[in-house]
Amino acid sequence: MDSFEAFLVGKIDDQWTRRVEQITVDDLPAGDVLIEVEYSGINYKDGLASSEAGRVARVDPLIPGIDLAGTVVADGGGFSAGDKVIAHGYDIGVAHHGGYARYARVPAGWVVPMPEGLDSMQAMLVGTAGYTAALSVEALENHGLRAGDGPVLVTGATGGVGSMAVGMLAKRGYEIVASTGKADKADWLKALGASEVIDRSETSAESKRPLESERWAGCVDCVGGTTLEFALRTARYGSTVAASGLTGGPGLSTTVMPFILRGVTLAGIDSVNNPIDQRIAVWKRIATDMRPTQLDEGDAPTVVGFADLPAELDRILAGGMVGRTLVSPTS
Q1: 85-111 b/e (C-beta count within 10 Å ≥ 16 → b)
Q2: Which of the two ends of the chain, N or C, has the fewest CB atoms closer than 10 A to its terminal CB?
Q3: Which residues contact 273 (CB under 8 A, 6 or more apart)?
Q4: What is the pTM of this model?
């Protein structure tokens, strides 16, 4: 197989670099399944992996890209040449070369067959962010939440996880209150299915009160920090808050009051290491009953090439990205 382009990060002469290079399949790590990558996504974790200060990359050099979708090149690992597949999480794009290359090679246990009803672009429009959103919605419903129970708060709603959560909750008939710091995106969030849009200054406000008025039947929190604290002290009795993010900081200052006086559940959402059987089941739901509105009603996604990646990775770290931006090796 001829050489192909890949986007790499790492040190050269003790200087951190982000560059496009020609590599070969022999440069890829060991794995059972060789995939021709059609699309990858740009996630906050990819931004961290591309930055020396992010301290996420665990190999040097590294091809980032924590999620990818494409076509199996050769039979192996229980897959056949021509199969459409998705791979994300585990060590991909962190300690194992990821999706920012024309080809990726990964263990078979990390690969999800493409569910009927999705193609590679749609799968990466959902991507790790949408998969995390689906796990969050599923956690709320597993704890008893149903449409009609009341408003569901989604924080960081213009981000990848938040916007997908809005689209999935809308698909399932929920009343959604979306929190964002981007007032100019209120109409966009309402088009995705939000019933109301509130400013993040309300949801990130600090308070010495352990509890406030009960407001939310459930919450998908993509921010962490003071925003998660707000969600916990304003959650309704018996509700669940699904926490998946830390853009607002990793700290959490709360009391036991929401848990012992209101029976609130704080559900942690991990999309990196959960088992492959769960991944396959959740992806089938993403293609069907949890299918986000973006897949059928939204605008076409922004697609960039490797040369655009430094600017786009900086953008997501700065909080300037709205929705999902995809990467195509052929763009």
Answers
A1: bbbbbbbbbbebbbbbbbbbbbbeebb
A2: N
A3: 89, 90
A4: 0.93
9 and 65 in a common domain: yes
Contact (Cβ atoms closer than 8 angstroms) between residue 180 and residue 197: yes
Those residues with Cβ within 8 angstroms of residue 277's Cβ, 6 or more apart along the chain or in another chain: none
pLDDT in tens, 264-299: 999 999 999 999 999 999 999 999 999 999 998 867
**Domain assignment present for 138:** yes
> Which phi-psi region, left, alpha or beta, contains residue 324 (left: φ > 0; alpha: ψ -120 to 50)?
beta
SS (H, E, C) 130-147: HHHHHHHHHHHHHCCCCC
List the structure tokens of 203.
Answer: 């949801």
Angle, CA of 144, 150 and 156, to the nearest 5°: 90
Q: Are 85 and 113 in contact (CB under 8 A)?
A: yes
pLDDT, tens only, 45-96: 999 999 999 889 999 999 999 999 999 999 999 999 999 999 999 999 999 9
Q: Are residues 80 and 136 in the same domain?
A: no
Identify the domain containing residue 37 by its residue range: 4-114+299-327
C-alpha angle 167-110-330 in degrees, rounded to nearest 5: 70
Claim to verify: residue 240 and residue 315 sit in the same structural domain: no
What CA–CA distance (Å, rounded) separates 296 from 329? Answer: 24
User: Rounded CA gap, 131 and 151, in Å?
Assistant: 22
- Other Cβ atoms closer than 10 A to 300: 8
H-type alpha helices, the chain: 44-49, 120-142, 160-171, 186-192, 200-203, 225-234, 257-261, 276-286, 294-297, 309-317
